[in-house]
Design a protein that fits this description.
Rossmann fold; 8-stranded mixed β-sheet; 46% helix; globular; binds D-malate
């Protein structure tokens, strides 16, 4: 694991392999180890970069708010320090919100885009209220209370029934998160911009991927994004939920691998 200073945060990241760079952006409230099935696969032909958002995994908290534009700054800052001009950006859920913020703020840094289990629209007022309440809960009761709230939403029905080892892995990732990092990310997501207008302006090759059993960002959201992005392609992964890359790693890798070959 490498560390680099971005603003006032010690950012943990991995940088493996050679070739066209691919940056993987993790979901809330996990960390870069959610990409452990993708790193060995894609680093055979690509330079693969993964990172922990400030306050998650091995990255320290930042004094900056965890807004999506600030997360875009973190990615751009890391690319600068690694001497990378542009990359394929693959973001899942909150990672997808950050990827869209990067497309808005630094369009030349994104040469192709993979949006996984995410959405372009903002939260409803009720959704925002829920995030503020959960942020308070994390601050008062710690990360373990978030585990019980999140696991049933993050994993699909099939995984919950048949793959307990994945639920355990997700549990460990959430428990390792800094409660303040969780709270700040919830507040950051609640304040995110609606990216619907951006979709029609995306000119880079784009792939939209979603788990068939994703209830948090359901396939209908991916269908809408795919319809709005010029020339994009949609892949629905059977029997996978919100964490499609973990729940059906082989299918996910096949779909992303085919896309990378064509871009
Ligand atoms: C995520 O998986 O990153 C989050 O659950 C997304 C969200 O809460 O909107």
């Amino acid at each position: 694991m490498n560390k680099i200073k971005i603003n006032d945060s010690e950012l943990a990241f991995r940088d493996l392999g050679q070739g066209q760079p691919v940056v993987f952006l993790h979901a809330f409230p996990l960390n870069q180890s959610m990409w452990d099935e993708q790193v060995p696969e894609f680093s055979q032909k690509h330079r693969v970069i993964t990172l922990d958002w400030p306050g998650f995994g091995d990255s320290s908290l930042s004094s900056a708010d965890s807004t999506m534009p600030n997360f875009a700054d973190v990615v751009a800052g890391l690319l600068d320090q690694l001497g990378i001009g542009s990359a394929t950006i693959c973001g899942l859920s909150m990672g997808g919100y950050a990827a869209l913020a990067l497309c808005r703020k630094y369009p030349t840094r994104v040469n192709s885009l993979i949006l996984c289990d995410t959405r372009a629209v903002t939260d409803t007022e009720e959704g925002k209220r829920g995030r503020f309440e959960t942020a308070e809960l994390a601050r008062n009761k710690g990360a373990s209370v978030i585990v019980e709230l999140m696991i049933p939403k993050l994993l699909g029905e099939t995984t919950l029934k048949t793959k307990p080892q994945i639920a355990e892995r997700v549990r460990a990732m959430i428990e390792a998160a800094n409660p303040e990092g969780i709270a700040k990310a919830l507040i950051g997501m609640a304040g995110r911009d609606d990216s619907t207008d951006l979709l029609a302006k995306l000119i880079c090759p784009t792939l939209v991927v979603v788990g068939e059993e994703d209830t948090l960002t359901p396939p209908s959201e991916s269908e809408k994004m795919n319809a709005a992005i010029p020339g994009s392609r949609l892949a629905v992964i059977p029997k996978a939920g919100h964490l499609a890359n973990l729940e059906s790693a082989a299918s996910f890798n096949q779909i992303v691998g085919d896309f990378l070959k064509r871009t």
